[in-house]
Structures are given as structure tokens and as C-alpha cells.
Amino acid sequence: MAYKVFIFILLMITWVVLSGQFDAFHLALGLISCGLVTWMSSDLLFQTREQSVGERVCEGWRLAFYFLWMIWQIFLANIAVLRLALSPDAMKKINPSIVHFKTGLKSDFAKFLLANSITLTPGTVTIKIMGDDFYVHAINDAAAAGLDGEMERRIARIYRSERDARGGNSDGKESA
Asked: Which residue from 1, 2, 156, 164 has the highest number of Cβ atoms inside 10 Å of its Cβ?
């Protein structure tokens, strides 16, 4: 029960901060909405319940720093794709491939975060996940080289229980 109260409070704080409305109508709407979301999906946010509230807060901070790093990576990848698109010999530089690798991440949420992070980065799209196997489409060799495991290692650091993240390069690469 304390877990659901924590989720409700977390959602309500988010509601108040993002809405910016402090009148009775909006606060009541927030209470109702956060209550329904907590009741329907409190098991989705945190899969394990062994961690203390302090550990969860630290995890939240690590996730926030990951998002800042991710925004920078998206910016850099946008610049790389823009250079590729504006290059006079762009067709020679485009070499699409399917990159296959096994992840060491264990929780479904960590895998979900990795897959979405890859897809949000221009030049790469996660096309299939089967258990621990990821298949990613990369627009060229530079985008494929960006799948060196750094993103996965950072996600593993967020969730300290994800200790088995791969340390090396991808298993293989197949041409598309």
C-alpha cells in the first residue's frame, strides 16, 4: 500500500508541476487522474519493490542525467544525418545495415528504454527485440559504430541491478 501511495504522490507532483494550475478544479482533476493511473498501472513504473525510497530517488536522478546525455546524443546524431543528407556524394555514404547484438540488460523497462533511445537517435531504428537480442537498422557505418554499447552501459548504471550490460561491440552486422 505504501508503494501505491508513493506512486500517487509522484504522479500528483508531476501533475501540479506540469499543469501549473492551482485552482480547485484542476487540483481535483489531478487527484482523480493520478488516482486512476495509480490504481491501473502502479506495477508498471517499478518492477522490483526491494529498493528504498532513497534508492528510487537516486535512480530518478540518474535517469534525469541520462536524459540530458541522450538529448546531446540526439543533437549530435541530427548533425551527422544533416551532413549526410547535404553531402554531394550522399548516395555513396549511405550504406544501410542491420546490426545485431545481445543486451545484458535484464528488466523489460531497461530494454524498453534502450530500444527507444536507439530509435530516437537519428540514423538508427530498433526494428526487433527477441529476448536479449536486438536488431537495429543503421543508415550507414558511422551510425552502426555508434551502437558500441555506451548507451546500454549508461542505462545499466541507472538501474544498478542491471550489472550484466555488454561491454564490447555488437555481435554482428548484416547488410540490408
From this structure: 156
